[in-house]
Automatic annotation (TrEMBL):
The keyword Translocase applies. Transmembrane segments: none annotated. It comes from Mangrovibacillus cuniculi. PANTHER family: HEMIN IMPORT ATP-BINDING PROTEIN HMUV. One of its GO terms (molecular function) is ATP hydrolysis activity. It comes from the Bacteria. Residues 2-239 form the ABC transporter domain. It holds the Pfam family CbiZ. The keyword Transferase does not apply. SMART domains: AAA. SUPFAM superfamilies: P-loop containing nucleoside triphosphate hydrolases (SSF52540). This is ATP-binding cassette domain-containing protein. Keywords: ATP-binding, Nucleotide-binding, Translocase, Transport.
């Protein structure tokens, strides 16, 4: 669709773009990212011929871009900017109709049925039916951008250029506009090139990203290839953390403030554990980085409340998470900040242990073995005859990346299995060694202010400590049951 070869642009005596080459295929959504002053908008303007190249060539549909007349270019290439001019007081319909100008020929430029059909389709698709007779100046920023996009659609270009189109929109309108653009690109086989300041939005929506720095193209690739810590840190001169999106196979960038006020120390203190008839509650001053299989707070996150709630052996709820959230709120604990689990074990049988070497660690465990199982041998069964649960909390004063948290889970689980083996705990149905119960729960939390430990497998010092302490606290919790 578009091919750029060796493009350089001078503005006055200053070279703004230097030796840039890339191509855009039909149906591609391309994003341009880079720090301020890197040449992003200049590149976009050059693609419209607003700026003349000092070197290199731009071709559109295999013809030099400058070989097209101004009107021909207007019918092939459209620009959607951050702001649209609404000073003339036109209505929404009148503004959209202007998009058909590029397709008019001759002296007498009559409005045709095709023109009317194109305008009506754009209005319907972008849900502007209730706005057609309103002045554009009366609309919100997001609504104006929809009108501008509708005008672009009826222009029916082969290539759409967007210059930071979402900068002044709230999140709803940012997403809405980019959803519309993506759908239009894929369904009409057009091409889009967009300048972004928001790296995460660019990574979510674009097929490829062009990274500019100092007027040069430093990288051209898929978002997952671009969102690499070393590249982003080099280009934007600040340290990022690259994480996967929760529901899409996309990467996202997280930034960490440098302020020391946000990095306060926290201690792992047994005095912060509260034990009542209804629960064991541990509250930390600072949130811990956690990995958990709890009812609330499951997965990887940040939490400062940890709850092991006592329930009867006959507890049954079709919506245990919602019921647990209500319980937490009733006790003044924010459910969104809590890792919670349940046990039918008597709360007073809890085992608590604190160690200082080699890494400060706090462990809390309750253990009921009423329905200990061997999951390999015993067939799946929905109902438990005599419910039991092993709930284990381990908090470490260290900095553990997510991969180390996952390795810690494996290490601790192996230690739990070893403890049950040595205690001779068996599955009552199969008479084979049990590995746990059907409802065991685990949370591992790290302060993220101690020493950085990249791994937590059994071959590491922290892994060895985790295994030993998990083994001992589980054995103690089982022993407390008598």
């Amino acid at each position: 669709m578009i091919n750029v070869e060796g493009l350089s642009v001078n503005l006055g005596e200053k070279e703004i773009l230097h030796d840039i080459s890339f191509s855009v295929k039909e149906g591609e959504f391309i994003g341009i990212i880079g720090p301020n002053g890197s040449g992003k908008s200049t590149l976009l303007q050059t693609l419209t011929q607003w700026n003349k190249p000092s070197a290199g060539a731009i071709s559109l549909l295999e013809k030099p871009l400058d070989s097209y007349s101004m009107k021909e270019r207007a019918s092939l290439v459209a620009l959607l900017s951050q702001h649209m001019d609404h000073s003339l007081g036109q209505t929404v319909r009148e503004t959209i109709q202007l998009g058909r100008y590029a397709h008019k020929r001759g002296i007498f430029q009559q409005w045709t049925e095709e023109d009317e059909e194109q305008v009506n389709e754009a209005i319907a698709w972008l849900k502007l039916q209730n706005y057609t007779n309103r002045a554009v100046s009366d609309l919100s920023g997001g609504e104006r951008q929809r009108v501008a996009f509708a005008q672009t659609i009826v222009q029916n270009p082969k290539v759409l250029l967007l210059d930071e189109p979402i900068n002044h929109l709230d999140v709803r309108y940012q997403k809405e506009l980019l959803d519309y653009v993506t759908t239009w690109v894929k369904e009409s086989s057009r091409s889009v090139i967009t300048v972004f300041h928001d790296i995460n939005m660019a990574a979510l929506y674009c097929d490829r990203l062009l990274v500019l720095q100092g007027g040069k193209l430093v990288k051209d690739g898929k978002p997952e290839a671009i969102l690499q810590q070393s590249l982003i840190e080099a280009v934007f001169e600040t340290k990022p953390f690259i994480l996967p999106h929760a529901t899409l196979p996309k990467s996202q960038v997280m930034w960490t403030p440098s302020s020391s006020y946000l990095q306060e120390e926290t201690s792992l203190d047994t005095t912060s554990i509260t034990i009542t008839e209804t629960m064991i509650h541990y509250h930390t001053k600072k949130k811990l980085r956690t990995i958990s299989s709890g009812i609330t707070g499951a997965g990887i996150g940040w939490h400062s409340h940890f709850v092991n709630r006592h329930v009867t052996p006959y507890y049954d709820s079709e919506q245990p998470k919602e019921e647990m959230e209500q319980f937490l709120q009733a006790h003044g604990i924010p459910f969104y900040d809590a890792v919670s689990m349940m046990t039918a074990v008597d709360i007073e049988d809890v085992a608590v242990k604190k160690v200082e070497e080699p890494y400060p660690m706090l462990l809390v465990a309750t253990a009921g073995l009423g329905d200990a199982i061997d999951p390999v041998t015993r067939p799946c069964r929905k109902e438990m005859q005599n419910p039991g649960t092993i709930n284990l909390w381990i908090f470490v004063h260290a900095t553990l990346p997510d991969e180390a948290l996952l390795q810690a889970c494996m290490t601790v689980t192996e230690a739990k299995v070893k403890a049950l083996h040595d205690l001779g705990v068996k599955d009552s149905e199969t008479n084979t060694i049990a590995t746990g119960t059907a409802t065991d729960s685990l949370v591992i939390g790290a302060t993220q202010t101690g020493p950085r430990l990249p791994f937590a497998g059994t071959g590491t010092e922290i892994g060895s400590q985790l295994a030993k302490q998990a083994y001992e606290i589980i054995a103690k919790a089982v022993g407390n049951r008598g």
